[in-house]
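Intended use. Records such as the Permease entry shown here are meant for training and evaluating sequence-to-structure methods. They are not intended to support clinical decisions.
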Amino acid sequence: MSLRRMRREAAFTLVIITTLALAIGATTAVFSAVYQVLLRPLPYRAPEQLVTLYQSTPQRERMGVSLQSLQAWRERAFAFQGLEGLSIRDITLAGDGELERVRAGRATAGLFSLLGVRPLLGQDFRADRDAHGLLLSHALWQRRFGGRPDVVGQTLMVDDQLHTVVGVLPAGFRFAPDVEAWKPLVLAVDEPAGGVWLRVVGRLREGVSAEQARTEMTALGAALVREPGFAEEPAGVRLVPLHTQVVEGSQERLWLLAGVVALVLLVACANVANLLLARASAREREVSVRAALGAGRGRLVRQFLVESGMLALVGGAAGLVLAMWGMDLLRALMPPQFVDAEALRLQPHVLGIALVLSVVTSLLFGLIPALRVSRADARGALGGLRGGAGATRGEGGRVVLVVAQVALALIPLVGAGLMLRTVHALSVVPLGFNPQGVTVVDLSLPSAKYRDEAVQRALFSSVLERVRALPGVTSAGMSSTVPLWGRNGLAPVLLPGEAASQADSRELVHFRTTSDGYFNTLGIPLKEGRTIEAWDGPGTAPVVVVNETFARRYFPGRSAVGQRVQLVLDGEAFREVVGVVGDVQHNSLDAPPVSEAFVPMGQLWGLHMLLTVRASQDAVALAPVLREQLRAVAPELPSVPVSSLESVVDASVGHTKVLGSLLVALAVLGLVLAGVGLYGVLSYSVSQRTRELGIRMALGATGHYLVWRVVGQGLRMAVAGVLLGLVGAAVFARSLSSVLYGVSAFDVVTFAAVPALLAAVALLASWLPARRVTRVPLHEALRSDD
C-alpha cells in the first residue's frame, strides 16, 4: 500500500527524495573532508606527542633549524624522546625509465621510527650503512616501477650518484606534500653547520607538556649562543603541535564550509518536515474514513511511519551516490594549499550520521501528524468544511518551519555574496606585470655536475640564447622566482655605516637572482635608472635593482639610484642600486607589495631558476619546443615542468575561488529548498481554502485581490525569515572576515541584495500557487467539500 501511494504521489515523493539526497550528499562529502583533514588523528604512533620545532626571530616567526642547532638540541634537550630533521628539494631520478625530476625529502635516519611508520616493503634507513639508501613513496613505486616487489635492492642514479632502494612506504604516508622519495640526511656530511634550512620534528617524553618543552628549549637556545664556537645569531624556539601545523592551512575554510552545509541540512530537514505535515493534513478525511471503517490507531500510525521511513531510506541511498560524486568533485576542485585532495575519502560514520538525522526527521514528522490525525473525530473530519478550523490545524507549525527555512537559507547566501565580491575584487587587483603570453619553465640543475659557477652560467646563457632565437618569441629572461610562484629568498639589509646588529631589527627583504630580459618579458615597468643587463657579470661592479617599495622604505624622499646597500648573505659585498622597477603582487593578490631586490644572475648564481618566455604561442604549444632546446643544451636534464604565468596567477587565488564556488552552490541549494518549502505551504493552504476563497469571490472579491492576499501571506513569512536570518548572517559574516578582500564583512550591497533575492524567490513561490485561485470556477469552489 505504501509503494502504491508513493507511485500515486510521484511529485511529492520525488521532491522528498531529491531534498534528502541533495542534503545527505552535500553533508556527507563536506563533513567527510572536515573529518579527514581536521578531526581524524594523524596516522602516527601517539600523534599527540609530536611537535614541529622552528627557530624564530622578531622578523620571522618560523625559520628552519640549522644542523648545528639540531645536533646541540639532540644532546641537551631532555623534554624529547627524539628529535629528527628533514628538508625538501627536487632530485633527478634515473634508472628503470627516462630521466625524471621528483620531489624528495631528506631525513635523518630516525624520522620514520619517531613517527611510528614502517615501510610496506623493505626496511627503514639505518644510520650506520644507508647513506645512499632511497625510500620510495607508494605512488612513485606504482607509477614508475609498476608496483614490482623486486624494486627493493635495485640501484638507481639520483643526481648523478648511485642509490639503492631500501624500501617502499605505505600508501597512506603523506608526511610532506608531493614528496615521492626519501633520502638519508647525514648531519656531519650533507650541509655546512651554519645553514639554516631544516624542519625539525620531535616527540615529547611521557608526562612532558608542550609548554614545558618550550620553556626548556628557550633556555637552551639562550645558553647556546653564549658558548664559544656556536656560529649562530640569537634566535628563539617555537613549538607547534604537528596536527596544528598540518591543518592550519585549511582549517578555517573547511569549518566555514561545514557550517554552511549544516545550515543546508537543517533547511532540508525543515523542508521534509513541512511537506510531511502538509500531506498528513491533506489525508485527514482519508484516515478518518479508514478509522470509521474499523482501522485501529496503531495500524494507521504504522502506515505513516513505514511511508516516512521508506522515503528516508530511498533518499539516503540516493544521497550516498551523490556523496561519492561530491567527493570526486572536492578532489578535483581542492587546490594543494587548501587540502591534500588524494587523502580525501568518504567517511562511513559521517554518512551514517546524516542518514540517521534524515530518518529521524522523516519519522518524527511522520509520527506527529499520524498521532494527531489518528485521534481526529471521524464525524468532524467527514463533515468538516475546507477552510474551517480543521483546515488550519497545524498550519502554525508549518509557517514556523518556513520562516526557519528562509532564515537559515539567508545565512549562506550572504556568505556566498561576500565571497563573490571578494573574488571580483581580487580579479581587478593591479598585478604590476602582464602575465598574458608568458610561459614559465622550471629548471633545476643536478648539483653534482653543475656545482661550478662558470659551468652553470654558461648553460643558462646558452639556453637564453637559443630560446630568444625561436620563431614567435619576443623576449626571454631568467629569475630564481616569479610573482605568485610561492618561492622566496630572504635576506637582511644594511646601509653604509650601519652596524650589523641593525639588520636584525628590520624586516627581511625578498631578493631574486635575475637575468637580463626578465623585466621586459614580464612587463614590469622601469621607473628610474636601468634594469639588469647582460654585462652585469662576475667581473663587473656589484649592482642591484630594487622595487618602489624598497626605494621608499630605505631612501625616503630621495632617489635610490646610486645608493649602496648590502644583502647580508655569505660573502655579499655592498651593491650599487642602478635601477628602480615597479611594484608587483609577489606573495599574493590580497597582500601589499614587499621590498624586493634583484641581483644579476651573473653575480649570484643558483641551481634552480625559472625561464620566462614571452611568445605568440601559448604554453601548451611552446612546451615541446622549449624542452627540445633544453635537451640540445643539456641532454642529462629531466623533463621540465612548463606552465603559463596566467595559470600561476589563477592558482594563487584558487583556494578563494573554490571556497566561493562551494559556498555559492550550497547557498543556491538552500535557497531552492526554502523556495520549495514556501511553495508547498502556500499550495496546501490554497487547496484547503478553496471554499473560503470561492465565498469571497461570490461576495465581490476580485481575483487580483485574492491572488495578492495569498502572495502577501508568503511575503510575510519571507520577511519574518529574513529579519531572523540577518542576525545569523551578521555573525557568519564576521567569521568570514579573514578570507575576505576588498569588501567589508557587513557590505551594504550584499546585505541588501540577498534579502532582495529572497524576496523575489518568495514572490515567485507565492504567486505560483496563488494564481490557481482565479482558475477554479466559482461554482466548483462553492461546491467544494459539500
